[in-house]
Design goal:
The complex is a heterodimer of chains A (282) and B (253). Chain A is an alpha/beta fold and 282 residues long. In chain A, 40% of the residues lie in helices and 20% in strands. Chain B is globular. Classes of the chains: A alpha/beta (282), B mainly alpha (253).
């Protein structure tokens, strides 16, 4: 991962996103293989790896009985940075995040959104080179989600912090520099969101209706890939054969709805996770 | 150096939390006085010990031990709250590692146990004739007991995964430790099985140490008591350090 990059970790529930993050966070020893952060092995050089890390877990790690400022002071202490200009660092972070007006308030009185922002500030306060966030936007309203990404962008620009995050919201991952797709504990795709989308095809056709399966068969020869089968129909990735589609996907052949559009990360996600699931079942 | 910063940070945080939980504070201080009142004065009429002292004076060190044991152990066991809310994972992932985190928590829990024990000890002159020298010796016993209790609490917390078990631990661990220590009745009057259990119980030695300090008849020597408490501390802290190490154990929360 290049410095300052935004990397998204995607995959269905149980794919191994949290496990991957715990491994990198040195909180879980790998049963096989190895992992390193900035050249430091996460099991043999835990201390060095940890010094480079900022962690945000699924539930905010914030002490409700401490004030906002005390929470940040505690985070600095955990990083071994209690002395020397700590007040200045905390004040700057409070101002930049908009948390300054809550500084003296106990964290339990904050709304979920503000608590998450405090959690992010807490994780970045010591200036980590890598920030790991496990589904940071779960349960956040759009306003706080925006504020959170803004905060992370500022951190990346100012300090070149690399950000690794997991999410189920694909539109968030579409903004990432790189996306790693996990399924059943394996990396099934890895690349820039646009690259991954392009792998699906040049066009995507959503074909609904009882005749959808036959349309897929008819287009198989023309090089169409089935991205996903849904309850309503199929989603096809096309490289060519757009003309053929117009011929076979007609109401007479049992097609009730046809949408043709540019491929998205969503399609790449479905293609790879469904393929992995089919493999697992077989 | 940075390890000391971590230890201090944890102690400061715990102290703040402790001071802000009024009901826990009141319960921690109230419980030992209930013991002194209900057990000490309550059994006064029917219980006799051949120690040449009234039963209320005999039971009093039990109240002090209760303050120390419950204060130290419960504060340390509250680490399970940190596990439940993800704070523990954060602490263990700090660059300083597991040991300073556990040392900080042990210290803050021992502080709570010491304070609770000292409050009960300070009221001892109301129940028995004791002078400043005896109170000072008692204070040292309280500190030793609080350190051992804190480490034991940490050991329990390392195996506890949910706060729902908290009440069970009080009933299954803390009360038996207190009852099997000679707090209620002299050890030599107990059934043999209880006596054996009492010998393996660190609280027995804390209580014995308190009896030494307060001028009551004790079962062991001061050196034996101190050694036993030091051993309990070392074993419990060492065990906790192994069990909390994230590399050896999956952190569920």
């Amino acid at each position: 991962m290049p410095a300052g990059a935004l990397v998204g970790l995607l995959g269905p529930n149980g794919a191994g996103k949290t496990t991957t993050m715990l491994l990198l966070a040195t909180l879980l020893a790998p049963t096989r293989g190895r992992a390193a952060l900035f050249g430091h092995d996460v099991t043999r050089e835990r201390r060095r790896a940890r010094e480079a890390l900022g962690l945000v877990f699924q539930e905010p790690s914030v002490d409700g009985l401490l004030t906002v400022r005390e929470n940040l002071a505690f985070a600095l202490a955990l990083a071994g940075l209690a002395d020397g200009g700590a007040g200045g660092r905390i004040d700057a972070a409070l101002a930049a995040s908009g948390l300054a007006r809550f500084a003296g308030q106990q964290a339990r009185t904050l709304s979920g959104g503000w608590r998450r922002l405090l959690d992010i500030v807490r994780a970045t306060l010591h200036g980590p080179r890598l920030l790991i966030l496990d589904e940071p936007t779960v349960g956040l309203d759009p306003e706080h989600r925006d504020a959170m990404w803004h905060l992370l962008d500022a951190e990346r620009r100012a300090r070149g912090t690399t950000v690794l995050f997991s999410t189920h919201y694909l539109e968030e991952a579409a903004d990432a520099d790189r996306v790693v797709l996990l399924a059943a504990g394996r990396v099934v795709a890895d690349g820039a969101p646009a690259e991954l989308a392009a792998e699906v095809g040049t066009l995507v056709a959503e074909v609904d209706g009882p005749g959808a399966a036959r349309v897929a068969e008819a287009l198989d020869a023309a090089g169409a890939t089935v991205i996903a089968r849904t309850a309503r129909g199929v989603r096809l990735g096309l490289r060519a054969g757009g003309e053929r589609l117009a011929e076979v996907a007609t109401p007479e052949r049992g097609v009730t709805r046809l949408v043709v559009r540019a491929p998205s990360l969503d399609d790449a996600y479905l293609l790879h996770t469904q393929a992995a699931r089919a493999e697992g079942a077989a | 150096m940075s390890a000391l910063v971590v230890v201090r940070g944890i102690v400061v945080r715990d102290a703040r939390r402790w001071l802000r939980q009024g009901s826990r504070l009141a319960a921690g201080l109230g419980r030992p006085f209930l013991w002194v009142l209900f057990v000490g004065l309550g059994f006064q009429g029917i219980a006799r010990v051949d120690e040449g002292i009234p039963y209320s004076a005999y039971a009093y060190p039990g109240g002090i031990a209760m303050g120390v044991l419950f204060g130290g152990m419960l504060t340390a066991i509250s680490t399970v709250y940190d596990r439940e809310f993800g704070m523990l994972r954060l602490m263990l992932a700090s660059p300083a590692g597991t040991l300073p985190v556990l040392a900080g928590r042990t210290l803050s829990a021992a502080l709570v146990g010491t304070l609770q024990g000292l409050v009960v000890l300070a009221a001892a002159p109301l129940a028995m004739p004791v002078g400043p020298a005896q109170l000072a010796a008692g204070a040292l016993a309280v500190v030793a007991g609080a350190l051992a209790s804190a480490a034991l609490g940490l050991l329990v917390a390392s195996r506890l995964t949910s706060v729902e078990n908290f009440g069970g631990v009080i009933n299954v661990v803390l009360f038996p430790m207190l009852f099997l220590s000679g707090a209620l009745a002299p050890l030599d009057r107990m059934p043999a099985a209880f006596r054996v259990a009492a010998l393996a119980n660190p609280v027995t030695y804390l209580l014995d140490l308190l009896r030494h300090a307060l001028g009551q008849r004790a079962a062991f020597g001061v050196a034996t008591d101190l050694l036993a408490l030091a051993l309990a501390f070392a074993l419990a802290f060492g065990g906790a350090a192994l069990l909390f190490d994230p590399e050896r154990r999956f952190l569920r929360r």
